[in-house]
Write a structure and sequence with these properties.
Structural class of chain A: alpha/beta
Radius of gyration of chain A: 14 Å
Order of helices and strands of chain A: EHEHEEHEHEEHH
Oligomer: homotetramer
Number of strands of chain A: 7
Largest sheet of chain A: 7 strands, parallel
Strand content of chain A: 15-25%
């Protein structure tokens, strides 16, 4: 059976508090039995991977550069795209639901792609807000909402066609 | 001598008013002697190209799909990337300054990339606002600011390294 | 510890004989404890995934389109890139060694990228030949050579710099 | 009216003889009134651009890196993709016909994509040969064949569907 895939997006540099939040999110994703997808670097991505590994999960890091060695040490499967920031879109497309934690402009580009493509995205401490975007108040809530979106998911193909109220 | 390149970003569907605004922007870019870069489709992209052609300019359309035929009729040079939304990043990277007109989520992804990469972006009727983003109140002002950014541009390489206060 | 990653490349349509050969290659990769990377579609890709699953391995399918549902049923982790044929490069970059089985023009593009980037590639029934390319005469031999390349691999970064005798 | 687009592919480093051949090809493309598309770097790409400029043509360089400054000095419109070698596919997709001059593995990946996508490709001193690939014996012949392919081109969409006898 195919594994569910939940993505975690956020900055490569973050405070200790945000790192800890990412750890909790990663742990929850692993406990729920989903694969963790992320950008493979430090900060929020590393925290999430560390949390997932602490709960026996599996982590995939989709890197912007060409060196698998650039992945954080908690990444099981480093995929070096060499696509630069275009890998942001690929992180979004690879996930069935996304949890955005805080985040800067890179995370904003990922949120924008999620909203355009109709991939459910749950914001946790994000500064960007949008009526189409879900919000969570703590890690457990974010994880719960992400898993709820997986089961609520309409038949294949539906999400890719809807979700673009303002095409651009 | 190399031509300056100004990008125009915005939705593929827009009101008549926004279309007319895009036309004015495109006309201004052509009159200033810059090449117009855009995503090649309809709406804001078409308006901008139409305006540029009315002033004898040259237009490049960087398309998401694989068919050059999908470009609007005012595109001189249709480049069909086949990269889907990843072409949004490429529109940003190809431009020395960008004017965002209104826009939906696709435009938001482009604004996010611009801010992350330090490519100057001027917002005209955009809903997204950001301290790092320039704002214009009409087409002439937007064009003026875009050209000002070209001459203000620091030596090669500077922009790509700065502009990422919140790495992600 | 990070899993080794061996890629299998070949056509989406193939004869029963080639499909069986791909199965044997996939099985050998899984028995050796490596992760199987492929393009996720039918033919050689499906055969290899089926073989890997029969030996309890894990399979990743890096798809050209936007629908994870397009992956063959033996793919554990479908990654839908939406990049079209540009995903060929990404299959190459994600692998530490590649086994090419027969194959058409798509496979040829992957072999070319492998040779340019210095990722070891072993040909099994490929029509294209090259002095830089390894050759195997059966599935077991191909798998053996691929695993030998993993251990022979020079320190990080070395491979990306060599392997391009004819830069282009 | 839209400009025709002919691509020239070949290595970033080449002999003086090959450089001169590329110049002749570029000059012929410009004289015929087509836009020259290339990878924007040195060697064959530079020779072709230099030739095109000597005949008053227009040149586009689709660069692998993020710096427009890396384009050779004969490129009018430098487009910095930041996509690395994935830009090879984009050079192919942007062209209506391609002339390959000598070339290494990068050029081979472009020839493979051309053959898979059905974009006509004419080989001039290429080591790779294929029944689907056209051959020219000198620059004038290559240019003549490329322009002949433009007019012979079937209605929009036809080429993208054919040309893949060995899907992969």
């Amino acid at each position: 059976m195919r594994t569910s895939r939940i993505g975690v997006i956020g900055s490569a540099q973050c405070s200790r508090e945000i790192y800890h939040l990412a750890e909790q999110v990663g742990e929850g994703i692993a406990r729920g039995g989903a694969l963790l997808i992320c950008g493979g670097l430090g900060g929020v991505m590393e925290g999430a991977c560390k949390g997932a590994k602490s709960a026996g999960g599996t982590t995939i890091g989709i890197l912007p550069g060409v060196r698998p060695e650039d992945a954080n040490i908690y990444v099981d499967i480093p995929l070096a795209t060499g696509l630069g920031l275009a890998r942001n879109l690929f992180v979004v497309r690879s996930s069935q639901a996304l949890i955005a934690i805080e985040g800067g402009y890179g995370t904003l580009s990922e949120i924008a792609f999620s909203l355009q493509l109709g991939v459910p995205v749950i914001g946790l401490r994000t500064t960007y807000t949008d009526a189409q975007m879900l919000r969570a108040h703590n890690a457990a809530d974010a994880v719960k909402q992400a898993f709820a979106m997986l089961t609520a998911r309409p038949p294949a193909g539906k999400w890719t066609r809807k979700g673009s109220p303002q095409p651009a």
